[in-house]
Amino acid sequence: MKILDCTLRDGGYYTNWDFNRALVDTYIKACNDLPVDYLEVGYRSIPLEGYYGEYFYLPLYVMQRLKSQTTKKLVVILNEKDIRPEHVYDLLTPCVGLIDMVRLAIDPEQFGRALALAEAVKIMGFEVGFNVMYMSTWKNQKNFLELLPKVQGLADYFYMVDSYGGVYPEDVKETIQLVKSYIPAVPLGFHGHNNMELALVNTLVAIEEGCEIVDATITGMGRGAGNVKTELLFTALNAKGKLEVDFNPLSKLVDSFTSLQKSYEWGTNLPYMVSGAHSLPQKDVMDWVGKRFYSFNSIIRALQNQAKGVKDNKSLDTVRFNNISYPVLLIGGGPTVIQHLESIINLLYTNKDIVIVFASSKHAKLFTTVQNKQYFCLVGNEGHRMEDIFDGDFIVNPICILPPYPRLMGTYIPGNVGNNAFELQEYNFTELKIDSHTSIALQVIKEMKPTNVFVAGYDGYKEGLIDQKAQELLVENNQLFDDFIQNENIRFESLFDTVYKIPQISIYSIIK
Amino acid sequence: MKILDCTLRDGGYYTNWDFNRALVDTYIKACNDLPVDYLEVGYRSIPLEGYYGEYFYLPLYVMQRLKSQTTKKLVVILNEKDIRPEHVYDLLTPCVGLIDMVRLAIDPEQFGRALALAEAVKIMGFEVGFNVMYMSTWKNQKNFLELLPKVQGLADYFYMVDSYGGVYPEDVKETIQLVKSYIPAVPLGFHGHNNMELALVNTLVAIEEGCEIVDATITGMGRGAGNVKTELLFTALNAKGKLEVDFNPLSKLVDSFTSLQKSYEWGTNLPYMVSGAHSLPQKDVMDWVGKRFYSFNSIIRALQNQAKGVKDNKSLDTVRFNNISYPVLLIGGGPTVIQHLESIINLLYTNKDIVIVFASSKHAKLFTTVQNKQYFCLVGNEGHRMEDIFDGDFIVNPICILPPYPRLMGTYIPGNVGNNAFELQEYNFTELKIDSHTSIALQVIKEMKPTNVFVAGYDGYKEGLIDQKAQELLVENNQLFDDFIQNENIRFESLFDTVYKIPQISIYSIIK
Lengths: 512, 512
Hints:
- Two copies of one chain form a homodimer.
- The first copy, chain A, is α/β, with parallel strands linked by helices.
- Chain A has two domains: 2-284, TIM Barrel, CATH 3.20.20; 328-509.
- The first copy, chain A, has 19 helices and 15 strands.
- The first copy, chain A, has helices spanning 7-15, 21-32, 54-57, 60-69, 85-92, 111-123, 142-147, 169-182, 199-208, 230-239, 247-264, 270-277, 282-289, 296-308, 336-339, 341-350, 382-390, 437-448, 468-487, and strands at residues 2-5, 38-43, 73-79, 101-106, 127-132, 157-161, 188-191, 213-216, 328-331, 355-358, 374-377, 399-402, 421-423, 452-456, 491-494.
- In chain A, α5 (85-92) packs parallel to α6 (111-123) and α18 (437-448) runs parallel beside α19 (468-487).
- The longest helix of chain A has 20 residues, at 468-487.
- Chain A is elongated and about 80 Å long.
- Chains A and B meet through α9, α10, α11, α12 and α14 of A and α9, α10, α11, α12 and α14 of B.
């Protein structure tokens, strides 16, 4: 039985395939003293749009460096969806003499195309691994199953990939029997995911049932909920007397990745559990978990909709705003709203025509005494949050605006809002068609055509640690503001200091 | 099949059974909308030495408050080792009408004594749950097994507890068959731990094999590696169509505990995996993981020693210091050593007789050019760390001092140190007999009898977040310094600002 560690390859989903050099050196060096047979160190790929890091393209000098450091067999993987047989010669020539095995990540629906790719790889002299995804769906894929015998003589390993992380030990057994009935002599492999914390038990069952190779990653680092943890698999096999393990290099290595885990937070959580249990793609969940305004709650709701094939709970009326001849005050969730509350309240008391648009309802309860018209942008979990914030003690006529239909993240409207909830027709001030607090707020403002817009509480993150998620949101919001200001002929000013590229004035210069 | 959530009871191992009131309110309220049948909210206990919080003693007003909020059955647990039948009347009278079930945490070796306790509880009208620990050892415990039939008529539930978190699904099946062969009519329960990420699969197997009740905790919060996660069990059963779950209250609840998890970090890790795989107590690991100077590496080593019954790898010579008539410079790992390096080097260059004691080897490489005699305190993983720091480039004659024999955390001595490694005879300047950098350093200093001690790099944690572990270390070190200064007639001065209660002078006042 062989073990393939694919920490850099599968972990790259979290770091966009960039890793600190010292960490990679530690990893390669430690693996020399550990009972792994293969190290999958990344992808090779034709140029794709968008940024992907060092270990997605694996330039020659990186492969050379890794080869010079390791005593193990090295592996790269190709994404079958992007790579055609005609790319193979250029893509893999630099790998000759450095890389031992080339794996192919394959959608079973494209299995015919994948066979041609595998042949092109095999001809160049590499060991070939078939990594076929979505194993939970195979038994209903007759076309794919009938093509299986063609891998004989071509595949050094044929992997079953539990892409959703939702299979149980009995499913692993059943799939192995199914595959063996078509290709009894091809060595099998298993690549598990840990959404349901079943990756270890599934991997052990795969070994018992005759798989000759299994994948694992240090600390389970890998797409979505991640993989079976190499250290857990080692510990289990070692305690059963089946594997010699030196825990010294292992625990040093685990220590190195543990700090990275605290910043990227891979591993399972409730949304990944639900996606695993219902065989829903990890990719969506990974995007959603990355957005701080999608609570687990709203993600679960979206996943349940996907599982049931429901597009959304219900469609609402759209709203038509009269062109208002007043200013809008756009209020975000930043702390300046609290610091300068008195000035904002004063502005609203003395200008009762100003229309308030709450991008976030965070500070809304502070404004229950003002008589200005109030709009709330209900994206993701904001309806529940709004309800919690007001805690039954509602303002008189809140008007709630939801993203355009269909809404992935559900349609929750707080009880007291009643009929005052509407949805947008579309976003047409930007190419960035995403549901977010700021998208809704700016679309509402565009349609209102106010005389001008004041902004409060869009501070950015000036203090403390700013994490990856916050940075991405910052960039996204800034893009939205920029698109709005470029395209719409509406004056736009922040009343307080802000890190966003919005013109600034001082609230104290405009209140009486 | 019934579900018992014991988040507050088992999670209390991390918070010492104190929980923020708002969190408990959220928990109780959310559980009203979730398919749990019982909530175990804590212990009841006679007064024990040491501090244990609100949910360890559960005073009457707390039980009344919980009862007024919940629609579920409430449960408390008694630690059989602390409680005798004669305590029961006083201990449980306040529970009448508030608590539905009383569980007993039982060591199978004390099963006879536990039966008497159970009778005293049963007489008072409570449902009685037997929670019998160490299920992995039962098949060899004939005395215990022969007493089993006596629980008939006494136990409402008889629980198998996987105390070590090391059982596999097949062990669960086997133990259930074993127990059923003695008490076929008693409803069985299962309480799993998650060291090997097998808690879910074990719990599902327990249900399949006929257990009528299973335990779970939100986010798995519980002793050591924790329990099966309530949200994971719900998701699995819900996806199988066996349980209706409202994911709204569930995900809100999970969100609340997730932030607490980030601060206490319950869940499995390499040391818990090893302790689970080898059926070693979680309690030791939990203590060790709490100390920041015990790396996973040294904990694993200690666990391997325990598993093999090895007390320590080897015993060293003890060292006899001549009374030195020079000062000692005690160097810790704080940043002032780097900030003020020039002054320290100057002090050592101009006073070559000063003996350096490195409590931490963190900064030792900065001192390779000085000719002063250098001692290193090798506790836990420090030998490996020292080796990493010097990276082959060793100073000439480092002398390493290890804790007294036997050493729980192993005896690793860097290669180049050769025979210059010794162990202490004992700690005799303090009642706090613990292995730590500071303990060793102070014991060495006591035995050297220097003219006086200068301290550098014992800064405390002035900047940034200071976590629970760091605070405990701070308190512990301060206690050590205090014991030393009170009992030993040696002048002791920090050369830099420090949060420890050590007399301070300035290095700049003593260098030329």
